[in-house]
Queue: 3 jobs
Job 1
Amino acid sequence: MPHLGAAQNSVTIALDGDPPVFRVLGSSILPKLTSPNFANIFKVSVDKDGVPPMTGEYAMRNGTLVFAPAYPLEPGVSYRAIFQLAGERGSGVFTPVKPKPVPTTVVESVYPTTSELPENQLKFYVHFSASMSRGDAAKRLHLIEESGVTVKLPFLELDEELWDRDYRRLTVLFDPGRVKRGLLPNTEVGPALVPGKSYSLVIDSEWPDAAGVPLKQGFKKTFHVTAADRTPLDPKTWRLTPPNAGIAAPLLLDVNEPLDAALLLRFIDVVDAKGKLIKGRVTVEREETRWVFTPAEPWTAGAFNLEILTTLEDLAGNKIGQAFDVDNFQRVDQSLRTEIYSLPFKVH
């Protein structure tokens, strides 16, 4: 819908189009001109006294004089357009309105991707297609029971939300006090998740991205809760499938339960017999139960090792050789120690 200015002698000035242009409508004289100086008969400027006319391009289109400003018009700034030719006059003041932004950001994925989670599930990773605003997570994330009841305060509320450097991945922690046995919140309030029940993680569409524009649509992940998992990881039960030499085929590591997606991508390296790091690309598949390493160069025959940090975790925070939920707290210097579990393999 064009913006129309005041009309005099049937001449009207309009502002429309994308990008916007000024148009002189209804002139009976303009179409008859052979070599007019349009800048003398049609002037557009900021609506302030003493301001010179704007520069731009003039053109006749289907009997209509069109002025396209050389620079974009500023939303909220008023512009005065004046047309005068012989006995025809027209003028108008226009204030462009900033167009309403179109939402484009979506929730790309939520990890874990499996539809079954243990009672002592520790976290979610929410991945967005673009950078997000900060400070809205607590009011935009909801955990809802299958009955429709919203679980109160299931997640740990932090002063600083746990975003990656691009603000596209948010780590959402369940309140550990409700997860770990023996702690007061677990005893008095109970765990956020109950085995046998189904829940939905619901993300509001009103959550603004970094530009302040709401999400294109909301998101819901529905899952069923199983019994708590308090078994340490045991790499001896994992299956490693080595590739053949001479090709850049993927190395496959199949584990027997879903693992923490972010840690699975970062906590396993491939080294040769001399300890040299093999470069390549890591992905996870099959609901985070398969680790896939594709080398940058073809494999050479020989011995290799997977070097796995023992702080790699499953969905409940259990590590290699250590359960998350233990009866006795370890000393801080012991709990922070990181070791490497080596898993050898050969390429033929």
Job 2
Amino acid sequence: MRIAIFTETFLPKIDGIVTRLRHTIEHLQRSGDQVLVFCPEGGLKEYKGAKIQGVSAIPLPLYPELKLAIPRPTLRKALEKFQPDLIHVVNPAILGLGGIYYAKVLDIPLIASYHTHLPQYLHHYGVGALEGLLWELLKLAHNQAQLNLCTSSVMVKELVNHGIERVDLWQKGVDTEMFQPHLASNMMRSRLSQGNPEHPILLYVGRVSAEKQIEEIKPVLEAIPNAHLAIIGNGPHREALEAHFAGTRTHFVGYLQGLELASAYASADAFIFPSRTETLGLVLLEAMAAGCPVVAAASGGIPDIVTDGVNGYLFAPDQEDGVVIASQRLFTAASGEREALKSRARDEAARWGWAAATAQLRCYYQSVLDCDLFSSAA
């Protein structure tokens, strides 16, 4: 198959969407497919054999790491040269609308996928009144596609409830070869805790932005004696959070990748994730694969990953001090119980390799192509 992917974010940006796309592209290319990626310019011309068509873009005012790429007529020329069998639009916003438009104009089958719960994000940026309008715009865009994919069962239901049609589940994936418990090290513990490896270490990995509700980890830090917090990642909320956590044992590490990131997961005592806006929560799967116990809100796609008391601890999204209570459950559990929880977490993550997730996606691609061929013949 020849697949053109339109995405609002790609390398060198680092987030859960980019992680999924990286592994998906790599496995598609391994399967003999050819991939062309349209994304905001970032300097890359190729990734794992896939060509990258960078589109000039401007930084998003509220989030400079994200860039708005405006569709241009050159997209059509590139598509006509590549001759894709199918267009896959990831999180259609601005550039993705160009993908939708050219799929219609050039009569190319279209798949869209939903990864970021934007309507919920609005409330964290003071514009929650626009949620209804945004759902209407999302419905208008997604209903142009022959198939819409979500990465958790909860989000499948939510999209259907908001009038988006032809929705199915794209299963989760995690790199279980990269994230493993044996990568724990005292050196990494010392780095995360700024020289206090013997103390409890709490970990957060992900975007440092308002919708992640990272400030809710502060009471946990205060409730666990001698605990240190390491925040891995970056984003527009960092300065505000540095002020919020001033005077606490908090270390803003910045970005880590590859084996360093895997070692950070494996070396921490708990992964704390208070976000209520996750369509899946890929970082939770990474932590679980690395054997790091997780504490998370029972919201969005997270219950698809974490079963309370079995492979992690959940708290109700509206429960006052819920994240503190769940974290205390973890730290007061007997060592044998914690080890069993870590083992079950690793077992759960091991079920969801990227090869299987991409094989499922290829089946979706083929089903859309088969339906298109059938419709053309009719």
Job 3
Amino acid sequence: MAEKDSRTIRISRKNALGMDELIHQYILEMKLASGLDRQLIFAAWDKVSGAANYTGGKFFKDGVLHIKVNSSMVRSQLLLMKRDILSRLNDSLMKEELFSGRGNDAPPVKDIILR
């Protein structure tokens, strides 16, 4: 009979982690959270604003989402709905399981600048 290696680690059911927790730990350990958060913010903008077809460029820094809108009419409509869009955007992000900024009291997107 072969002897057991003393370096073998046994995982008991008490220490077993669910797949959701493993994915979260992997994202944090590989330092992927900020890039993933940015992509989730851009996807939430597309979903919440309904202006994905008119959005030319997106940039996020220091809590401010910069959006380049290709149509002046769409930009005007978005400006009128800016507060509502900002609120729905942050609500959408807080419901997203992979978004790492959920633990903070401050909203992830503080302002939207439309150009």
